[in-house]
Amino acid sequence: KVAWRVDNSHVGGRFADPCGGQRLANGNTLICSYGQKKGDMPKLFEITRDKKVVWEYFNPAVRAHEVHVVSTNGKPEGFLK
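and the corresponding structure tokens:
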């Protein structure tokens, strides 16, 4: 059973070979768009469960393959308690 799904129709075409994603403690999801080559589209972005974009990271000089949010206690969020 699919619990949650997002695709380009939900996020204005931001996906271009998405390679990494992480569900955050606040319920949002952080996504990498590795293949994104358009300068006006983000390499990383965070979205809510309602598929609203919270923030975006733009940098045409780099490609983002994976991203991991580490909490201030040094443990990967959502993996170690």
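(Above: one complete record from the training split.) The chain has one domain: 1-81.
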